[in-house]
Amino acid sequence: MTRAKASQKGAHQTRAPHALIENLEDRRLMAASPLQVVGINIAKRVDVDGTALNSNRITLAFGTTNSKGKVTYGSISVADQSKIRSFGYAEDLLNPGQQRKVFATLTASVDSGEPHVLTIITDRLVRKGGRLFLDLGGVKDTSNNDIVYDGSTSAKTITYAKGQNKPRYTLANRNWRPTDLSYFSKTIFTAAPTPATASTEPSSGTIRTALLAFMNQKVSKGIITQAKANSAMALYDVTGDIANLLHNPNIRAGLASLYGTVAEPVIASYTSKKNASGAYYINIEFSSSISASAPVGETRMSPSGRLITYIRPTFAGEDFRAISAVLAHEAMHQDATSSGGNLDDTQDEEIIANAVQANVYIQQAMVDSSFVGNGTVLVNDINDQVLAL
């Protein structure tokens, strides 16, 4: 018994002590990859039709460079996309004079055809001078070593040499994304409902009541004087030659409602000789004579040198404030610089005309925004333009 106990005690005493430090050969040491970024390209992405997207494609090539400058590419893989970060500084619109740090949402991949290239797609355009971070565990080489660019040193910092300046980057990060697609067209948002066609014009009396209420709102808000409101109603109630020219009540109301907007001078352009032709317009009306290629309105010059403005008849029942924006747009097309009396509607001129149209629409909506939710074709088309500003 005593001997047995002694044997057990001896066995206990000869047990190996517990190691406080693990043997190094039992652990895999983290190692830095010899691969480095040897090339970077930043490109704007475009849609299938060539339309520029609010997105960049960033490609980074990885390899090693010898003492003679020769580059040998090395294969990589994305281990954890969440460890790849991109950010830039935008204006803080809620706090003027300050800026905010904005991180992009991105996807990262490596194509089997180019195993040395990391492709990053961002959900917004990047900021010139912005940073890209490859944190520990994000990208690895074929030996499972980490490729790290954490900004800890200049050699470990990736800065975008190309990109947007701060104002443009701020716009690229705009937060005003639509939540109610019924305000917009299916051309821009495919999930939007089909807008209603407003081709049936309200009665003259209904339009007059709406115009009077609208102009009174402008007076009460201090946008126009009572005298200008009276002038607007006088234009709507006009008789004689101007009444014949503006025989459509909705067009007449649209023109009269331009008092108090940036397009107020357009009123005289349409109702007098104060335009590029130096003569009265022949017609300003909803007409099927409009060219098939004109989506909303069209202004022509007759052989005699007088102007004609047509608006597509499918818009005859649209709100007069939307019509007012179209009239402001068409007034930009007056100059005949090419042979045959055809109006020279250049791309630059159309850009300006669309900007005027959207701004007039906004000014009208700031008085009374009820019409912007009508869900009609013209209203939703101009809502698209306003969103793009």
Mean pLDDT: 89
Helicity, as a percent range: 25-40%
> Rounded to an integer, what's the Rg over CA atoms?
34 Å
Distance between the termini: 97 Å
Secondary structure class reads alpha+beta
Order of helices and strands: HEEEEEEEEEEEHHHHHHEEEHHH
Number of helices: 10
The share of residues in extended strands comes to 15-25%
Low-confidence stretches at least 5 residues in length (pLDDT < 50)?
1-14, 24-29, 337-341
Tell the overall outline.
elongated
Number of domains: 2
**Sheet having the most strands:** 6 strands, antiparallel
Characterize the structure shown.
The protein has 389 residues and is an alpha+beta fold. 29% of the residues lie in helices and 22% in strands. It folds into two domains: 36-172; 181-388, no CATH class. It has helices at 2-13, 166-172, 204-220, 226-236, 241-245, 249-256, 265-271, 320-330, 347-367, 377-388, and strands at 36-46, 52-65, 71-73, 76-78, 84-91, 99-103, 106-110, 117-122, 131-141, 146-149, 158-159, 283-286, 297-301, 307-311. The strands form three sheets. Strands 4, 5, 6, 9, 10 and 11 form a six-stranded antiparallel β-sheet that branches. Strands 1, 2, 3, 7 and 8 form a five-stranded antiparallel β-sheet that branches. It has a three-stranded mixed β-sheet with strand order 12-14-13, covered by helices on one side. The longest helix is centred in the C-terminal third of the chain and has 21 residues, at 347-367. The radius of gyration is 34 Å and the shape is elongated. The termini are far apart.
What is this structure's SSE topology?
Blueprint: H1 2-13, E1 36-46, E2 52-65, E3 71-73, E4 76-78, E5 84-91, E6 99-103, E7 106-110, E8 117-122, E9 131-141, E10 146-149, E11 158-159, H2 166-172, H3 204-220, H4 226-236, H5 241-245, H6 249-256, H7 265-271, E12 283-286, E13 297-301, E14 307-311, H8 320-330, H9 347-367, H10 377-388
Helix pairs in contact: 3-4, 3-6, 4-6, 6-8, 8-9, 9-10
